[in-house]
Amino acid sequence: MKDFVMPVLLLLISIFSLVMTDRSIFWLIIALLGVIFAVWEVYDLIKKRRE
Fold first, then answer.
1. How many helices (H) and strands (E) does the chain have?
2. Residue numbers of the domain that contains 26
3. What keywords were assigned to this record (predicted)?
């Protein structure tokens, strides 16, 4: 379960930065990268668990 803390944290930070920023492209890109990375991490963890 500890493995899921980092991706979830990343996801929350990404969403938070999306909500809090003045919608500038720079923060939008960072938030999107954060979301993609978090989803990738979770997917990777689930894949490892199944093996």
1. 2, 0
2. 2-50
3. Membrane, Transmembrane, Transmembrane helix
